[in-house]
Amino acid sequence: IGLDTSREIVKSGPKNLVLLDRIDNPAAIAELSALNPKVTVTFYPYDVTVPLAETKKLLKTIFDKLKTVDLLINGAGILDDHQIERTIAVNFTGTVNTTTAIMDFWDKRNGGPGGVIANICSVTGFNSIYQVPVYSASKAAALSFTNSLARLASVTGVTAYSINPGITKTVLVHKFNSWLNVEPRVAELLLEHPTQTTVQCAQNFVKAIEANQNGAIWKLDLGRLDPIEWT
Amino acid sequence: IGLDTSREIVKSGPKNLVLLDRIDNPAAIAELSALNPKVTVTFYPYDVTVPLAETKKLLKTIFDKLKTVDLLINGAGILDDHQIERTIAVNFTGTVNTTTAIMDFWDKRNGGPGGVIANICSVTGFNSIYQVPVYSASKAAALSFTNSLARLASVTGVTAYSINPGITKTVLVHKFNSWLNVEPRVAELLLEHPTQTTVQCAQNFVKAIEANQNGAIWKLDLGRLDPIEWT
């Protein structure tokens, strides 16, 4: 989802796209740059599980260079219920810490200009895949956190919405471990359901970015984009 | 809530009550033992943030001694949105790890006898207090995890339900930090709402234990006990 969404974002034509990822992929950066020469695409190595202070330092480098940043997309995610601590660290704590770090630069109480946060959660945040209870719970947490952020926008000047993909044909769901192997065939069973392509998901993601609705809970499933109601 | 619930549990008369907590409280153990001489009350020091292997070792000691354990209550919790990592580690990861550890002894796939898990979550799992978005999200995660456990009961033989207290007059809510101080008066504001006493909450907790319904999501608010519907 990450690469196809980056392609769609580049096509939509922002001034800059900064990609943060654990692993550098120069071919992908080159492809993205070629796709729309008006967009400056840059890459920084980043692991969302690093301490908050380290994230703040990286963001300072980026803000110093770009002066302003309009949108933060928190999209790091893993799906492997054999790795309890890491699932929680990446899918939940990573989103909270990266968000907390950027508030230093955006929070209007510190004279910041505000900003927009798009958190990639998952439909499993509201309809869990119970064979991966840790993954599903980490996504429920990311969704709850995002909804709270949206309600804090009047205080912080920072708005937020969640992007909740359904089952999408990615490497993530091709093969993964269930909790305590409660269902060794979970990946197969999941892919028996109707799915969507990463391109469909990415195109709807950009539509959600363009809609820019504070508090929206976007469901991106089966090639559709729908706002859903949730407490 | 912990001590008053322990009092109500001892009154209800199980053979054994094993308390696990970071801090030993010999006066409380003595009081509980005196309350019902038929119940053996014991204490082990336990911090839910220790690695899984350490939890398994402690549980082995307890299972070796008692032979069988019928009910695990995961009740450790902190409320302080200045402590992001610790909130997640105690309220979410601690519940997942303690549950995962006890499966070694209970899972029917390993020849275990099954068991029952009662997880203390919170009404903020479904109605977040957005001024403490990390706490609320950690409880949303614990709730989602518990609901998945219940749906896995046919595989594991272990049933589960959640205990979701509303605002209860405890030391936890007397004074606590909001996320990035978004609302310095959050504790005061919260206590302007109607609340319940810890004794009311504890008595309803024991009723929920006696009801023993797999998958139940119990709301314990304003002195009432109500099952709620949630996906």
UniProtKB/TrEMBL annotation, chains A, B:
<keyword id="KW-0560">Oxidoreductase</keyword>
<keyword id="KW-0520">NAD</keyword>
<dbReference type="Pfam" id="PF00106">
    <property type="entry name" value="adh_short"/>
</dbReference>
<dbReference type="InterPro" id="IPR002425">
    <property type="entry name" value="ADH_Drosophila-type"/>
</dbReference>
<dbReference type="InterPro" id="IPR036291">
    <property type="entry name" value="NAD(P)-bd_dom_sf"/>
</dbReference>
<protein>
    <recommendedName>
        <fullName>Alcohol dehydrogenase</fullName>
        <ecNumber>1.1.1.1</ecNumber>
    </recommendedName>
</protein>
<dbReference type="InterPro" id="IPR020904">
    <property type="entry name" value="Sc_DH/Rdtase_CS"/>
</dbReference>
<dbReference type="GO" id="GO:0004022">
    <property type="term" value="F:alcohol dehydrogenase (NAD+) activity"/>
</dbReference>
<comment type="subunit">
    <text>Homodimer.</text>
</comment>
<dbReference type="InterPro" id="IPR002347">
    <property type="entry name" value="SDR_fam"/>
</dbReference>
<dbReference type="GO" id="GO:0006066">
    <property type="term" value="P:alcohol metabolic process"/>
</dbReference>
<comment type="similarity">
    <text>Belongs to the short-chain dehydrogenases/reductases (SDR) family.</text>
</comment>
<dbReference type="GO" id="GO:0005737">
    <property type="term" value="C:cytoplasm"/>
</dbReference>
